[in-house]
Fold this protein.
Amino acid sequence: MTDQNPSTEGKAPTSRRPKIALLVAIILVVAGSTAVITGLLVNIFQRKQEAKNPYLRFVDVTNDTTDPAEWGKNWPREYDGYLRTVIPTRTKYGGGSASETMPPPEKADKNPWLTRMFAGYAFAIDYRDRRGHAFMLTDQESTKRTKERKQPGSCLHCHASVIPLYRQTGAELLPTAPPAEQIQKGFEAVSKLDYWEANAKLEKSGHKHPVSCVDCHDPKSMQLRVTRPGFINGIKALKAHEGIADYDPNRDATRQEMRSFVCGQCHVEYYCGPKTTLFFPWINGLKVEEIESYYDNYKFDDGHRFYDWKHAETGAEVLKAQHPEFEVWNQGTHAKAGVACADCHMPYMREGALKVSDHWVRSPLTNVNRACQQCHHYPEQEIVKRVVTIQDRHFALLTRTGNALVDMLDAIKAAKAASATDAQLEPILELQRKAQWRLDFVAAENSMGFHAPQELARILGESIDMSRQAQLAAVSLKMTLAQAAPKAVPPN
Amino acid sequence: MSAVGLGVLLGLGLFTFIYAEGFSYFTTDPKACANCHIMNSEYDSWVKSSHHIVAGCVDCHLPHALVPKLVAKAVNGYHHSKGFTFQDFHEPIMIKPHNSRILQEACLGCHAGLVHDIVAGSTTDANAVSCVHCHSSVGHGS
């Protein structure tokens, strides 16, 4: 035993060391694995929670909560998207502000004929490209159209979260009426005010926000709903025309229809005043000539036929188209296939285990993956190319139509200079009204042709035809006048 | 001491496995494929599809022979858990070429007798026509 002692003592440190090393290795491996598994456990837990709780109501929101930040406390994901609408986006033909503080360029930079078309109207002095939802109110306050020209309070119908103001104003005038009637009454009263008066009233009411959650969502159920009186009255008239009496979108529309109707509250053609309360001209249908026929038969209170303004160069009583995205989308293949505005402009996105509608409303071209590829299983570049091809062709035709309009205006001006009488000019000015209405309807529509390429090409074709007809008539009228003139005063 | 540590690790691992409904992946219940919620819309639309009475997820998305089935299950299981944990996958989800071939073979597993004249080489040729190219919604939407 004793002679073994030295050897054991000598071996002991070497045999213990690997044991310690092994122990340390086991501890490290177990610690590492435990950390990984715990991490995984927490990750799974987090996903399960996400799937369980679509939202938590931290604050109560009501029909009077117009501040989106309040809603954002309950629905932070949607609010995050909404906030992103300040970010400037640009596609080949749309947008274009360089930063959040810079306004986008004038549309006339790209389409010089716009200034001629709008001669005598506020759009001739300032008409810029679009920005995100977040800017709708500030852009309206800073445009020369409201700063240098008198505008009615009805502009707020679509540029602010205005329904509580309508309700308050209506309640003062009709204290005992049901809320829907009060809103309608308030809408009529506020629309009659001067723009800046209405704007001040809105600020005083504490509801001065651009479009907000409450405009499209029921605060109790979060279901989609429409609130704008213009749309509610307009769609009711349209459905009555289609044979459906007493249509109420909030009661009768499907969920998928509502995903377009909420956008159709504003992205439409309308008359904004001041001669009568704002209305959507849908009584004969949504197509360009159906709207035109309604305007042509509409009489103002003074008995005069409907018109927006008198053209400064020719004196024609012309129409101004707003932005008929809803009407034009309705004529396109996507609408026919049941695709809603929100499917492309607010596509579903996934955050963890949650499915969220992207509230950063914007051009699908900046979000092709989510907006298009859900249905169109082609590479992103191929999809973009197809859209740009449509838009390039559309822009070329649009420019051609604009040039035809300018040629017509020149010819009419020349005929007027040759002392054409009002009676002689009347059929020509009537053609100008029709040609201009069609061109403006297409130009004001925000999709550069994409929402319904064939329908828009048809309208532009008609516009070119009418402009050239008017030009021909004006040129021959001028020639007739010129031939008649020397006979009246023979040269000596 | 290391035994205690290993025991804790084993317990934690087992708990995580059960909590994550790990055993459901040994079944053929389509609900298991929507465990992670990513496939919710696929599951919801499968319920309403024409094939839901005759085929569940695994009938079309896994090979029918035992060994290839287990291999495909393991490979896909790995990709899915990695993707969902790190949230780094392509959206919309697109089927991988290998899985696409499995799917095509599954179509033929039932329908070969009917279509053998028109789909020659459909699981081997790169440019061959695949059934779901046209019949994209028989199984589910997206």
